[in-house]
Amino acid sequence: MGYIGPSPNPGQNREVDDISSGFNGSEVNFTLQVTSQNVSPGSANAIIVSLGGVVQNPGTDYTVAASTLTFTTAPASGLSFFGLVLGQSIDTEGTADGSITLDKFINGTSSNNGKFLRANNGAIPSFETVTGTTINNNANNRIITGSASANTLEGESAITFDGTKILEIQSSAGGFFQGTDTDGGTALLEMGNGNVAIQADTGNAISDSKIQFLVDNSEKMTLTHTGLLGIGRTDPSAAVHIRTSNDVSYNISTAVNNPGLIISSNGTSGTDKCIGLNFSGPNSNGEGFITMVGTSSSEMEMRFALRSGGSRSDRVIFQPNGRVRMPEVYSTAGSSMRDVQIESDGTLCGLSSITAAKTNIADVTDISWLYNLKPKTFNFRKKTSDIVTGANTYLSEAETEKAYGLLAEDVETVNKDFCFYDKDSEGNDVLAGVYYKTMVVPLLKAVQDLKTENTALTARVAALEAA
């Protein structure tokens, strides 16, 4: 058989580059190169290897895979190396994969123009002309598909191309993919000028069309004909309607709150870095903001802000330690005002005075302790608050305003009922302050007693004067 393939170099033996510099008693794999180019002997028998002047046994002392030489025993440091790749023999039994290129074929004659090479039922392949018996129904605007009959191709009439946006791809003006339903409804995907447009029912044949986004044959997102977007819901009832199917119990300590929407920032962390929501109201200059603002590299606070006229400012601030600030709360008092109380669990509320809200009702009789209280005047110390725990650290510098009140430690020795306490880490009571509002009641009793006494003294004085 004649040889087909790259020109061989019979008898050409090549000395391998010295690899002894890599011998260290542990490495067994080495790359074979000739003049710094990788070389592949083909097998262990196609290379002679000598270590320290001793010829090695191929297949036993070493193996070859492509250009990698692997020793059975790692050569010791200092051993000399010699390698000789033996010249390749000519293989006339077959050709190597990928070794035949198109320029190896003899050019056909002009009589073969437009013909194709066809297998001929075991005989020598021959050039044949495309005829009607080879491709059937080759009408205009047909896609050619395989047919049921042998040795033929059919024109598919159900898929058409007429050059008018039914199937059109242009590098400059874009492309269009359009499907038409049997009742006239159409859907269109249009790409052009850097934009992608998806349209449903462009022919207005259906009054309630929608665009569906399906994953694993399940509808995950829907855009209705009225512009409502449903995520996780097929029948949205708002501009954006998000529904999660998770059924979990709230546990804020592990951040389990079943979020329907997560907004996250990938920016730099630190003080004053922020991310939030903006609302533009229907009225002029009407704006609202809900923003997370960094107070440090590891803490954020939630701020609620509004715009009034041309001025924007924070209205409520929830700090990381649980404190609540209302920077704009000072203003002219309105009508029907109520005192705001806070319950022991942190709930804001109003104090109720109706009988139904109370039990163990009894008259106040003993107010003798009231006269043992020690009213004071003082200045509050300036303070700093821990950003995490909210604990106060009082400074030596005083606030400028002069204040009047009582010292909780003094009140505690007189009547503990008018003191309130926090709990330390071990559950023990820690004195925290005085209930000033509740002192109105014993003061009222004191006024009543003084009124009774004053009335009696007035009557006695009048009787004495009349005698």
Please give a handful of descriptors for the protein shown:
2 helices, 5-stranded antiparallel sheet, 36% strand, 4-stranded antiparallel sheet, mainly beta, 35 strands
Strand percent estimate: 35-45%
Mean of all residue-level pLDDT scores: 81
Terminal CA distance reads 161 Å
Q: Please give the radius of gyration in angstroms.
A: 47 Å
Classify the oligomer.
single chain
Gross morphology: elongated
Q: How many DSSP-defined strands? A: 35
Q: How many distinct helices?
A: 2
| Share of residues in helices | under 10%
Side-by-side strand order of the widest sheet = 23-24-25-26-27
Could you name the ranges where pLDDT drops below 50 across 5 or more consecutive residues? 5-9, 165-174
The structure class reads mainly beta
Largest sheet: 5 strands, antiparallel
Q: Mind explaining what this structure looks like?
A:
This protein has 467 residues and is mainly beta. The protein has helices spanning 408-414, 440-466; strands at residues 14-15, 29-31, 33-34, 37-38, 47-51, 54-55, 62-65, 68-71, 81-85, 116-120, 123-128, 135-136, 142-146, 153-160, 167-170, 174-180, 186-192, 195-200, 210-215, 218-224, 229-231, 240-242, 274-280, 287-294, 300-308, 311-318, 324-325, 340-342, 348-350, 376-378, 381-385, 392-398, 403-405, 419-423, 429-434. The strands form twelve sheets. The chain has a five-stranded antiparallel beta sheet with strand order 23-24-25-26-27, with no helix packed on it. A hairpin with a 6-residue loop joins β13 (142-146) and β14 (153-160).
